[in-house]
Structures are given as C-alpha cells and as structure tokens.
Predict the structure.
Amino acid sequence: MSKVKTHKVIGLRSTLLSLVLFLFFILLSNQFEPYNQSQLANIAMLLIAVLSITLLTGASGQISLGQGAIMAVGGYSSALLVTRLGLSMWLAFILAIFVSALFGLFLGLAAARLSGPYLAGTTLVMALAIPSIAVRFETFFSGDVGLSVDYGMPPEWLTKLIGEVSIEEWSLYVVLPFTAVALFAVLNLSNTRIGRTWRAVRDNEVAASLAGINIGRTKVIVFVCASGLAGLAGALYGFRGLVAPSVYPTDLSLTLLTAAVIGGLRSIGGAIFGTFVIVFLPDLIEKVTNNLAIPETVGIYLPALAIGLLLLLTVILNPRGAAGALEHLRHKKKH
Amino acid sequence: MTPFLTAFFSGTAQGAIYALVSLGLVLVWRSAGVVNFAQMGQAMFTTYIASQLIQNNYSYWSAFLIALISGAALGALVDLGLMRPLTSRKNSQLLNSQSMRTTIPVIASLGILGVLKALAGIFWAGEERGFPSPVAPNAIKIGDTSLAITGFDLFVIGTVFLTLVLTTIFFTKTGMGLAMRASALNPEVTRLSGIKVGSVRTLGWAISGIASSLAGLLVTPRTNLSPNTLDLLLIIGFTAAVVGGLSSLAGSVLGGFILGYVISFVNVYSAPENVFIAILAFLLLALFLRPQGILGSKEVRSV
Amino acid sequence: MLAITNLVTQFASIKALDSISFQAKPGLITTVIGANGAGKSTLLRTISGLERPSSGSITWFDEELTHKSVEAIVRSGISQVPEGHAVISQLSVAENIELGGLFRKRIARGDLTIATKEVYELFPILFERRNEPAGSLSGGERQMLAISRALVSRPKLLLLDEPSLGLAPLIAAQIISIINELCRSTGLTVLLVEQNANTALAVADHGILLALGKVVADLPAKEMAADSSLRAAYLGY
C-alpha cells in the first residue's frame, strides 16, 4: 500500500516541478527581448542534453564525452524525416528519440564492457567521428552544407489565442513541452527502483553485482535512456535553422559536460543551473569586455577560458558542484 | 614509387609520432591511474612557446629544448597543482563512489584542456601558423628516382627511435626507472621500500609531458599549429594506447605504429574522409576483440 | 626501544586498536599474538604509517613516528614485511631486492652491494633465481624475498606480519629460525606478528597478547607460553 502511495506522491511532485519550470520559462521570456528569448529556448533544448548527462554520469557513473554526437544523430534523423519524407516536425522529433535510443542501444552494448577512461576516450572518438560521417556520405547527408530546417511559423490558432507570437517565442513554445516532459521523466526515473539500481552500480559495481543486479544490462538501459534524451535535444537544436557537422562539434559535448559538472552531477536542479551558466556566461563576458574595451581577438577566447576555469574550480573546491556546495551550506547552518 | 611503399613510409613516420603520444598517455595512466585528456593541449602550448622563441630569433634547437623542458614542467604542474589534491581527498562524498573516482580526474583534465586552448588563443591569436622543421621536407633522391620518404620523415623516425631507446634504458637500467615501474605495479610495497611514490608519480607526469611535447614539435611542421590542431593526435594516441594495451608501455608504442599504418593505408587506398570512421571502427573492434590490448594484461577487479 | 602509548586506530566508528600500550626492547624479539581480527595487522600498519592513528603515540628511541609518512618511517630504519609474502610479482627477484635499497643508493652505494650479497648468502635460492620474475617463486621463497627486500634497507627494527601464513610447517619453521638467528647475530629488533602462537613464542623474548584491539597480556614469552588459561581464553586451544 505505502509503496503505491509514495509512487503517487513522487509522480505528483515531479509533475508540479515540471509545470513550475515550464511557467518559469514563459514568465521569464515575457521579460526578455527577442535575443534573450532565443537564448532561453537554447537553454530549454540544451537542458535536455545536460539532463542526459546527469542521468548517465550522475546516476549511473558512466561518463560520456560524446553526447554532442548523439545530438547529431537526433538532429540528422529528424531533419532527414522532414526534408526527405515530408513528415511533420512534431512526429520527426518523437521519431528522433527512438532513432537515437536505438543508436544508444548499440553504443551501450559496447559501453557496457567499458568503464572509466575507456568509455570516456571511446565516446570522445565518437564525438569526432560521427559528424564526419555526414561529410563522407555527402549525397545522403548533404555534407558540410547541411540540411536547412526550422520551426516554421506559429500556427494561426495560437496567434488568435494570445496575440502576436514572434519567431523566438514560437521556438521557445515548441521546445518547452519537450523540456518539461524530459524533466518529468528524469525526476521520476531517479526516484524509483530503477534509479536506485543505477546508483548502486555507480557506487560499487562489485557490490551491486553481488546484490543480484545485472550490471551489463543496467548500463545498457541507462545508455538507451540518455541517448534518447540527447537525440531529442539534438533534433530541437538542429531545427533552429541548420543540421550540419559544424552545429554539433566536439566542443558541444564538452560544454554539456561542463554544465552538468558545475551544477552538480547528481542534481537535477544543478543541471538547470549549469545550463543557464553555459548559455548566459558568454553573453555576460561579452558585455564586460565591450565595456572594458578588451580587443576582440582576446575577447573571443574569454568565454572558453571562464568555462574551463569554472570546471577546474568546481572539481577542486567541490566536485559535487553548485548543488553540492548549497547542500553543504545548509548542513552547516543546521549545526 | 608504388602506392604501397608510399603508404608504408608515411605510416612509419606518422606511427612514430602516434607512438610518442600513446606512450605519454600510458605513462600517466600507469603511474597515476588517470587518462590525461589535456596531454595534447599541453603539447600544443609548448609548441607555441617554441614557435614564439623561433620568432624571437632563437635557434630551432634551443627552442626545441626549451619546449621539452616546459613540457616536463607543465606535466609536473598539472600533477602537483590539480591531480594530487584531487586524488588525495578521500572524504568527499562524490569521490566515495567507485566510478566517480575515475571520472573526476578525467573531467579535471578536460578543464585543463579548455583553459590551455583559451590561453593559447589569447596569447598567440587563434589563426593557424606554420612551424619550422630542422630538415628540408623534400623527398630523398637516389640518382634520378625520388623515394617516397622525405628527410623530415627520417628525422622524425630517428628522433622517436632515439627517444624510445632512452626510455627503455631509463626504465630497465636505472633505479628511478625501477621505482617508477614498482610504483605503478604495487604502490604499497613500493612505499614500504622507502620510495616517495608521490614524487615518482609527478616524475611520470613530467616524462609524459616531454614525450607529448616532442610529438607536438614533430607533427606541427606538417599539420601547422593552432589551438585545435593536436586534438586529433590525442584521439589517435588514445586509440593506439587502447589497441596496444593501456597497461603496457611496449604495447602503447606498438599500438602507435599500428595506427600509423592503418591511417596511412586508409589515406592512400581509400580516401582521407574515411580516416575518422576507420579510427572509430578500429577502436571498437579492438575493444570487442581484445579489451586489454595486444600486450596488456587483464585487470584484476577486487571485491 | 619501540614504545607504543595509548594508541587508537579507527575505521569509521570501529576501534581496531583501542588504546594500546606496550614496549619492544632493542635487540630482542617481541611477538604480538592473538586471534583473527584482534588488531595485529592494524597495529603493524599503524607503526609503519600505512594507517593513521586517531590518538596515542609511537616512538622509536627518541624519534616520534606518529605522524610521519610511510617513506620517512622506512628511512628512519623501520622496515615492514607486509602480510601475504608481499613482493612485486612482475619484477624479477633481483629487482625486488634492489627496490628495498633504492632509497640508499646515493648515500651508501658500497654498503648496498654488501647488504645485497648478505641476503643472497642468507637465502641462496634467491641468488639462483635472481633473474626470474618474483611471481614464479614458491610461497616460502616469496616470503624470503619479502624479508630480503626489507633487510637490504638495513633496518634497526623489523616488523613482520604473519611470515608463516600459508606456508608448509617445515618452511615456516625455517623462516622463523632464520629471523631468530638474524636477531641474535646482528642485534636487530624484531616485532613479530603471528597467529601461530606456539611457533612465535618459542623464539620470542617477550609476548603481547591482543584481543579485540586491546592488550590483554604483556609477559615474557616463556611465561605466556606456560599459561594455559590465557591460551584457552584467547586463542582457543
């Protein structure tokens, strides 16, 4: 009885949290000018990819430096479905989840045999190799030029309902439902039996296997779920205008990892915080450098420098990220 | 010259450089249990230092030497300033979990990579620049037929060969080399023998820094120098290390040469666009067929 | 003299050593006996610096060892032969021995050669097999190698952790008697941890009986060997 009840409570809590996030983004976007509205939409997309890392690394301890490549898989599959088969954008997004999850299944079968640095290195090689496939099979994937896709115009019923909707707002409205559902899914997963199994594998593989957990299968399942999420993020990210190798560079994978780490690998709130940082920090730095009249040749490297330093500071000061630091403070106050 | 010989010679010269990178990775992996993804970032940085010195009218060889020394210093600095404090902290909750202990150093090394790239961009502007070679890159001629091997290739192969011989002598004939091997195999018994395992580990980082710095100096005359040029070398070096066996120094060198031939033959017989896919396919194949590598020994997982 | 005073070593909330005090006199063999889990190994590991004590002190003559690093403790003349014939099996026999004296290479190269010669004389079988990997040795030979590795550092205090564990009785007796001879002929101080109380007490001068992390008896070896009630209560025979 009580078990059923807790499940219901958890379900209710994550529904509420996801709705709150949804409303928070909408309210925030009303305060913003178009540029920041599109940045907000970027956050909503990238958050899904960062959540996939939180799931993968934070909940099961596997590290992927190649989430950007899986985003590319999602991006290309959705773009091809729309441009070649003329499918609707919404259906293409959903299908992209399945294609990337299938890809994640193959990847997971290889990854289940790997751990730590092997997995990190292999996924890094993947991050570099996957986008190059698009160049190799140029006729199918359009090579370096890429595929042009976009969110289209806001539908009439919406403009009738809430008045004029700008392109930027429309992109946010398209992305947000997916973000909310993804958040809901991740929240639920980490609080259930499956989530606990994953954490057991993360903390001590030998102990987990002695407790009867099938390590290999667990790792594959985690990879499939995380890949589905990353693929969805990649599809949404591509529909900002272009799906091409240059949209999913190796640096994207590393940036996503940075967001997950600085927020706190084990915390979903941390993932949200980290995503805000990686998207808005470069803008902030640009503003400061413009005011200080720092030459542009130096200025363009400052965001990368700041993000790298932030990553280092996080692992040195508190490897559990901002969320961990917050918890630490709360703990201190109690005593 | 037949395509086969062309591929063979260029594969040997490239393989020699990959062997250095892979050796550097395995050195740190064996002595510190960390795969250093910042390794080629460090090499990129020291190659820029050499390039700057040459611009300031220093001779090639003094720049070469200073680059190697800064490679050693940078390697030691990464260990002392970052890795040692990270791995010594035991009570942090995140590091209590097994997988996180190996994950956090990887993330830290990615942080260093990011910082080094950004700094290189700030100091030397991001655009590609050339890097000189001490030997003319012309094909060697015997009579009227030109061979598929250049003087520069011979220089690369010779330098790497010399480095490998010196490394082998260091590891098998000197006390410090013995201490390094012992620390990697069994830190506890080594400490109980009165050896400062921490310092030995730092030395491992320094030597790895020299090896990768040398790789940077040898590869950039062909690829040019930019903050991102050496990323590819890291990926190839990692694959080589996995193919040869992350736990074996000899394996890492072998892996480097194998990768050199694979890439070179794909380049000649197939197309340059296929190189990335070939690397990925080769890596996955190696991981499935022989996860411990050609010369590696199976890791024993203890309860 | 090795003096242990109120030593406490904790693992999380469990006290493996619960305020232990005793002394080991120079030039003599002191044996620490006790059942499994009594804290014998923890005691040796704390003395050699592998475990950090939470309170108490360890001194060797006037030297405070309590918070020194493992390497520094070895360098002040205290060598441990860890449990389980700890040698590095991938290295050759000669390399294992060389490892033990490596830290003295620069300061006492000449003496190192002599020390190496001495251990080869003590264990001729090791000389015969000096170029083979240590992993190919038998259990008894490995124990000899582990002792040799410790001896080439010219220790003043030798800490032995269950040297007879897992060895055939004849080999075990041989190793214990060699340690006995070494102590008598060179004035080496020995702290011998053993589960096999009879063997240990037969050669030792003094006995310390540990139970659940506490010292329950601190007697001359002969008296301890004669006290059948102690044995019945703590060792179960």
